[in-house]
# Entry
Amino acid sequence: MSADNVKLGHDLSEPVAALLAGLPIKAASFIVTIYGDVIEPRGGVVWIGNLIETCKSVGITETLVRTAVSRLVTAGQLAGEREGRRSYYRLTDAAQAEFAEAASLFYGPEPAVRWQFVLINGPAPEEIMQGLERDGFARLSPWLAMGTHPAPPLPGRVVVFNAELATENGALKELAEEAWNLRHFAEAYSEFTARFGTFSRGVGDCVVLSPFDCLIARLLLVHQYRLIMLREPHLPKSALPADWPGEEARRLFAELYLRLSNKADAYVGRRFVNESGKLRETTPVSQARLDHLKSR
# Structure
């Protein structure tokens, strides 16, 4: 049997199993969450066995893990390496920078609003436009998009204009309602708050949860929050509805992440390994995340 095969199993507690119920967890996306939350702040390398064991608890098979990891390697996000009979996977330099930037949205201060307009020159702009929309930009025409944070890396035929808001009136809110599907994001934030709020109230100070339970609950928290945060437009308060649920979701994320982290990080320090040995329970990067969340 391969040294990478992991036969250990963990039964999730009832609160964490209820939290997981009904969530459509995809292998590659969940592995990205594991790397972003656990591995990136601890050097970016982990044994694939840790990925298999963790993913198994949320219903992702070993075969699906290996397939997803292979695709992430092909996409240039992971690089494989072997030490003896074990396989380890490292974030590439490009992915490490991308993950660190994304982490600032979850664990750092509220992002500053930086208005940008992106003009797509040339034929067939649709693929570029769809990528911008996935990053929270609004389509103003087939060739023009608007956003509030720096555009992702784009082809050379794209022109990016930085802009600043010169008026403060109700027209901005009207523009936001027309340009972005704010109802979709509001519903997503409300569903997030309902699911994780119920979990938070049910587990209190988390004494009923094992360290592994805390890790899985925290990964689910980050995973669902990430799916919204990386796509929503991050508009200023003056452009949002008065009852915008994003702020409540942001507070809940910080509060629950902090409550789960002592046990979750302890489990990581005991069980997760790279080619040099056990991962550290805490690092300056992981501690900085906790400090930022405490200061919210």
Remarks:
- The chain has eleven helices and nine strands.
